[in-house]
Amino acid sequence: MKKITILVVDDSALIRKILVEIFNSDERLEVVGTAADPLIARDKIKQLNPDVLTLDIEMPRMDGLTFLKNLMRLRPMPVVMISTLTNKGANITLDALEIGAVDYFAKPVNDNGHQLAAYSAVLIEKVVQAAGANVRTFDPSRFQPRPYEEQADIGKLKPDTWIAIGASTGGTEAIREVIQNLPAQMPPIVVTQHIPYEFSGSYAERLNRCCSLEVHHVVGGELIQPGHVYLAPGNAHLRFARKGGRWVCRLDEGERVNRHRPSVEVMFDSAGEAIGRDLIAVMLTGMGADGAEAMLRLRQQGCRTIAQNEESSVVWGMPGAAVALGAAVDILPLQSIGRTLIKYSH
């Protein structure tokens, strides 16, 4: 089997060394080169034609974002960003995902213990998935906020309906694509995206700026109401509970489910228990299978279920798993999901 070839781009010799050791420890991967800055990387991409690039954000001679824009415009390829888990790092990483990076990971620590082994396993899987990802050319118009433009009368909102959206790899952009094409007159929308806690607040703010709905980074206790979006924080499952006859958000910092916290499985199950067949469940692009079995249970109880199709997904893991189980009523391209949600909820 042909190995996945990787070019590691980072100005730190120590980080380059750690990453090379991690990648070369897996028989599916081969590091074919390293570069200390983007200009060296540019030449090595032409020379080595790697399958995947890992790219540091802050480097000499040219920053990672500028290089990424040029790369995704002229020679789109799978790129995984190396990020810091800080507020500044969150915004830069989210910019990189907008530009076209497939995924990101935190800088490794020079630790030979259990923590590094777990980190290595996740990182290797991210790179393997990135190698098979659908990569898009950079389009500057994607940066422009495009809140929903009111069309002809869309009808009256159905009472008691909720929408639940789950996503992982590629999901930050897919969720934005769906939500910014929705009117303010929508049911409550609850969202679980696999994302670090350090990033989820910044992501909620970005969503809020680009759509007609009110987006909340859930802290617990928020009243569920139409016209609002509720994003799970990156360190807790999103559940729902009754309070004074109304539904509110409840956070659960318990065990990981399907290796994730927040987990799409937990949110789908809790939303289904809350409102039954009035739920519309959506599975967007993502690695793994989190939420697929819960989506099947939702379909079996009469809910509308939608999976993003393979052609428009960055990684067709989670939606593909849902389709394989027979959990999806509809299998749709990303650009059709927003208008389908409008139709089903009115």
TrEMBL record:
This enzyme's EC code(s): 3.1.1.61, 3.5.1.44
Comment on protein domains: Contains a C-terminal catalytic domain, and an N-terminal region which modulates catalytic activity.
Protein name listed in UniProt: Protein-glutamate methylesterase/protein-glutamine glutaminase
Domain CheB-type methylesterase: residue ranges: 159-346
Alphabetical list of HAMAP family matching this protein: CheB_chemtxs
UniProt keyword annotation of Hydrolase present: yes
Keywords: Chemotaxis, Cytoplasm, Hydrolase, Phosphoprotein
Domain Response regulatory span(s) in chain numbering: 5-122
TM regions (residue ranges): none
Modified residues (4-aspartylphosphate): D56
UniProt record similarity statement: Belongs to the CheB family.
Gene3D superfamilies xref list: 3.40.50.2300, Methylesterase CheB, C-terminal domain
